[in-house]
Design a protein that fits this description.
The chain is an alpha/beta fold. The protein contains 24 helices and 24 strands. Helix 14 links the parallel strand 14 and strand 15. 38% of the residues are buried.
């Protein structure tokens, strides 16, 4: 075969479909989507069943969504999240198309932020014969009238379709009552998971009738404990997960639920149930010993007594959240960490935790201690370097996620311990750890000591007029007066030659948060933030970093989908221009309070086609016209934060 210019051309043989599928298996999902546009054979390879598992399509209701739904009709199964539906004709036609094209193929359906009519949903549900998960959270419009599923023929049709439904989410429904709850759950006889988080459930007293709950059958005004207990009794053989977060459940009500004969729960969420006491947790543990996941965060009446009961009674526990349980102390944590099945522990904002008992519990034999994969110590201000060092050494490569956000006493020594012993980390959050410096990230802790001020020798005792320091002694230097020694070029050469563990040792990182670690500079960011699999990175509130850091991150971390650079005043248009050509996957970007202009927005339009959220608030050199252009050109853009752009005078604002 010859070209028109006379040169011979070689026809490339077409690769077998199996080979293309194998090649695509190494790509990120977003890159696989781009590769599917190469040609028909690559598109067919991208539709292989191994790539179609657990895929959920999320989109707002619009005229173009109808064509999208029709295109999904060729798939064997799919899941949908459709937002912003209303009662108008466009939403009705979209739901009708979902029923016609995907009726027997749809496995999961969620309708967040919508306000649809009863008639629209009732025309859709009978067609969804393969539905396994239904999310109706916040859809007050369905239940406000109390007539939902009131007709027998509707209940029969829905019951036939939803006989295999396993998950039902009814969170945050203000008007859910006994009548509507019974009608809906009567159509779903084999539920595995039920969420009633944030619903108005009457556990003790019916305020509408002035009598105890249960004295009146099937209330049309509220959902009662008696009715919930009836459902648990009827579906006890299948139900394994229950979410009653943010409800007013009382200790006696929890005991009633826990004591349902034959009910064996594996997962229970009670976040924000502020009336629960230690006694109620003890009863729960006694009657539901098979619990594997328990969330009792923000239950502010709980104390160490509840922790001890959990440690002694739940020997199959894998995930436990005690976040914001302010009365919990160290006591009992050693016993808890001896539960060998425990994999995830959330102690964030437990202000009395120092880590001593956690270390003690992990110091036992491997067979008799938790193999933690996730540990959250956010805002545990008593955590210090000694505890972090001991935890890192004990947990080793089993730990995948560590959150030390706002642990203000954590320093470079902790960072060194993390990079040395926790090299299997996937998520590391150090936001607000203000004592972390370049030396810690570089793994050169030995040179982090502050140098004495040569200009300020010892000039003898000083007098002071301060009442609190009256006498001949100079008051101690305040923390903000001390600055770590700056990293020089010679130090960087030494770093390149040394064998110590720096942040580079965490080569599996997918998320890194260094927000407000204000002592960090370009010296460390450009050298050690080089993780090819990194997807989420926050460098917000680092006033010393410049365009050099942005360019280095963009060049070495091309998998980024989320990047936060807010309040970094030295980031400019030049840095954005050099970085964005390498950030094609970027979906979330924060540049608030940066020194950028309209030029940066034009560059984002050109290179970041997948951008979904953008924060450019308080960027005084950006115009509203450029923002409008950005919104019109980026097809996936959902939200733009652009408060106080264009040099808005903030001094005239009133509260």
């Amino acid at each position: 075969m010859e070209d028109s210019d006379g040169e011979d051309s070689i026809e490339t043989p077409e690769l077998p479909l199996e080979i293309i599928v194998y090649i695509l298996s190494f790509l990120h999902a977003s890159d696989r989507k781009e590769a599917s546009l190469v040609c028909r054979s690559w598109y067919n390879a991208s539709q292989d069943l191994r790539f179609q598992k657990n895929i959920t399509f999320s989109f707002p209701a619009s005229a173009s969504s109808v064509e999208l739904v029709r295109g999904l009709g060729t798939r064997s199964h799919c899941s949908l999240i459709i937002s912003q539906l209303d009662g108008f004709s466009m939403s009705k036609s979209l739901l009708l198309e979902v029923g016609l094209c995907l009726g027997s193929k749809l496995e999961s359906l969620a309708l967040p932020g919508s306000s649809i009519t009863e008639a629209s949903l009732l025309s859709l549900l009978p067609r969804l014969t393969s539905l396994r998960k239904l999310d109706l959270r916040g859809l007050d419009s369905l239940f406000m009238s109390g007539a939902f599923l009131s007709r027998e023929e509707h209940r029969q049709q829905v019951s036939l379709a939803l006989s295999g439904l396993e998950e039902l989410d009814l969170s945050d429904l203000r008007y859910l009552s006994d009548l509507t709850f019974n009608r809906l759950t009567g159509c779903t006889p084999c539920l595995h998971r039920l969420s009633l988080a944030g619903c108005h459930i009457a556990f003790e007293f019916d305020p509408y009738r002035g009598c105890p709950v249960g004295a009146v059958e099937n209330s049309s005004a509220l959902l009662s404990l008696r009715n919930l207990r009836r459902l648990l009794t009827e579906q006890k053989s299948t139900l394994v997960a229950l979410d009653l977060s943010r409800t007013s459940i009382t200790p006696e009500s929890l005991r009633t639920i826990a004591q349902v004969q034959g009910l064996v729960l594996e997962e229970l969420h009670l976040h924000g149930c502020k009336e629960l006491t230690d006694y109620s947790v003890e009863v729960l543990v006694k009657h539901q010993p098979s619990l594997q996941r328990l969330d009792i965060s923000a239950c502010t009446e709980l104390t160490t007594r509840a922790v001890v009961a959990i440690a002694r009674g739940l020997k199959s526990l894998t995930h436990l959240s005690l976040s914001r349980d302010w009365r919990i102390t160290e006591k009992g944590l050693a016993d808890l960490l001896s539960v060998s099945s425990l994999r995830s522990l959330d102690l964030s904002e437990c202000l009395h935790i120092s880590g001593v008992e956690i270390v003690k519990g992990l110091s036992g034999s491997n067979a008799a201690r938790a193999q933690l994969q996730t540990l959250n110590l956010k805002s545990c201000t008593y955590i210090r370097d000694v505890a972090v060092f001991s935890l890192a050494k004990l947990l080793g490569n089993t730990l995948h996620e560590l959150d030390l956000t706002s642990c203000i006493n954590v320093t470079d020594l902790s960072v060194c311990a993390i990079t040395t012993y926790l090299q299997g980390l996937v998520v590391l959050r150090l936001g607000g750890c203000k004592e972390v410096t370049d030396w810690g990230l570089l793994g050169m802790v030995g040179t982090t000591k502050c140098e004495p001020d040569e200009n300020r020798g010892d000039k003898g005792p000083r007098f002071t007029r301060t009442f609190g320091n009256m006498g001949f002694f100079k008051p101690p230097r305040l923390p903000f007066e001390e600055r770590p020694k700056l990293v020089t070029q010679d130090d960087l050469e030494q770093f390149k030659e040394q064998m110590g563990a720096s942040l580079l040792a965490l080569n599996r990182l997918q998320e890194l948060d260094l927000t407000a670690c204000s002592k960090l500079t370009d010296s460390s960011i450009t050298q050690v933030v080089r993780h090819p699999d990194l997807q989420r990175l926050s460098l917000s509130m680092l006033p010393e970093i410049t365009d050099a850091s942005l360019l280095s991150v963009a060049w070495h971390c091309r998998s980024l989908t989320s990047l936060a650079l807010s309040h970094c005043p030295q980031i400019s248009d030049w840095g954005v221009a050099q970085a964005v050509p390498h950030l094609h996957r970027l979906q979330h970007l924060s540049l608030s309070c940066c020194n950028i202009t309209d030029r940066s927005l034009f560059l984002l339009v050109q290179h970041c086609k997948r951008l979904r959220t953008l924060d450019i608030s308080r960027c005084k050199n950006i115009s509203a016209t450029a923002v409008d252009l950005l919104q019109s050109q980026l097809p996936f853009l959902e939200n733009v934060h652009c408060k106080f752009i264009g040099g808005t005078d903030l001094t005239h604002l009133t509260l």
